[in-house]
Amino acid sequence: MYPEYNFIGKEKVCKSVDIAFPNQHQNVQPGLEYIMDPKPIFDNPNYVASGKLKGKVAIITGGDSGIGRAVSVLFAREGASVIIVYLNEDKDANDTYNYIKSFNGKVSLIKCDLTNSSNAKKVVNEVISKYGKIDILVNNIAVQFIKDSILDISDEQLELTYKTNVFSYFYMIKSVLPHLKEGDSIINTASITAYNGEKKLIDYSSTKGAIVSLTRSLSLSLADKKIRVNAVAPGPVWTPLIPASYSANEVKTFGTYTSKVPIKRAGQPFEIAPAYLYLASDDSRYVSGQVIHVNGGAITES
To answer: CA-to-CA distance for 269 and 126, rounded, in angstroms?
Structure first.
C-alpha cells in the first residue's frame, strides 16, 4: 500500500494504488485524464531531483497525460526543458503545463497531429527555433481499440493505429535525427503486448512489436554516431487509454489483476517514468538497443 499523495492544490489524487477502479468508459481516443476516477498518480511527492537532465531539451509526444505526463514532470524536475506534443487534449495539456510551472519547471506545448509527417517537421523546426537544440526524443503517443476478432478490425482502424503508434515514431525520428549528436537519446514506448500478445488488441500489439524491432534496428544504425536508442515496455498502467478502450465492466477489474501480474495491481504512471529518466540520462551511457520491462513482475517471452 502506498501513502495518500497530495499534490499542489491539495488535490487528493488517490489514497492507494491497490484498488479496483470504478465503472467508467470514455467514447474518445486516446482518452482524457481529467475526467478519470481516480486520477492517475503522475508524480512522487517524495522524489528528490539531482539535476540529471540539467540543460537538456526533451521532446515528449503524448506528454499531456498518462505515462507521458509522468515522464514530462520527472524530466522537468531533473532540469530539462520539456516540449509536450499533443493532439487535442487541451485541458490535460494545460494541466500538465501548469503543474510543471508550479515548481518552476521549463515546459512548452505544441498541439498537432503527428500522423502527418509535415507536422513532425514543424514541431522540430519550432523547437530548434526556440531552444537551438534537441537532446532527447521520447516517442509515446498511441491509440488502441478493443476488438473480439481480427475480422472486426476495419481498414480505417488499422490505418489509424499504425499511423499513430508507428508512423509518427518514424516521422519524429527522421525529423529530429539531423539535430542529434553524440550522447543524445531516443526512447520509444513499447508494451508488454509486444512480447505476450493480447487477444483483443491484435493491431495494437503488432504495432508495439514493430516498435521493439524499430528500437533494435535503429540502435544499430546509430551506434557509430553514439546516439542511443532504447524502449520501455510497460505492463498494465492506469492511463486514459484504459477507460477510452475498455468497457466499464472491464475497467472495474483493471486494477485487481491476479494471474497476469504477480504484484496483482495495475501500475501508476509515476512508477513507469523513472525508466525513461534512466534511459535519457548519462546513467545509461552504455545502454542501447534495449527494452526495459516495467510490468509488475510479469514474465515476458522475448
So the answer is: 28
Distance separating alpha carbons of residues 15 and 126, to the nearest angstrom: 40
What are the grid coordinates assigned to 120, written together?
A: 513532425
* Residues 48 and 56 sit within 8 Å (Cβ to Cβ): no
E strands of 154-278, at which residues?
Answer: 185-189, 228-234
Q: Which residue has the cell 514474465?
A: 299
Q: Determine the angle formed by the axes of helices 168-176 and 202-221, rounding to 10 degrees.
A: 20
- Give which of 117, 118, 122 is closest to 83, Cα–Cα: 122
Query: What is the residue extent of each domain of the chain?
Result: 5-294
Contact between 265 and 63 under an 8 Å Cβ cutoff? The reply is no
Class of residue 4 by CB neighbours under 10 A (exposed 0-12, middle 13-18, buried 19+): exposed
Return the percentage of the chain with pLDDT > 70, whole number.
Answer: 91
Predicted TM-score (pTM) of this structure: 0.93
Q: Is the peptide bond before 236 cis (omega within 30 degrees of 0)?
A: no
- In the predicted structure, residue 9 carries a pLDDT above the cut 60: no
- Range 5-294 has CATH code 3.40.50.11540: no
Distance CA 262, CA 269 (A): 18
pLDDT band at 19 (very low <50, low <70, confident <90, very high): low
- Catalytically annotated residues: 204
CA pair distance 122, 107, nearest whole angstrom: 18
263 pLDDT tier (thresholds 50, 70, 90): confident
Classify strands 228-234 and 185-189 as parallel, antiparallel or unpaired.
parallel
Q: Amino acid identity of 220? A: L
Backbone angles phi, psi at 7, to 5 degrees: -110, 180
- Interaxial angle between packed helices 66-77 and 90-102, expressed in degrees from 0 to 180 and rounded to the nearest 10: 20
Please give the Cα distance from 83 to 168 (Å, whole number).
16
CA dihedral 139, 140, 144, 149 (to 10 degrees): 50
Q: Sort residue 62 into left (φ over 0), alpha (ψ -120 to 50) or beta.
A: left
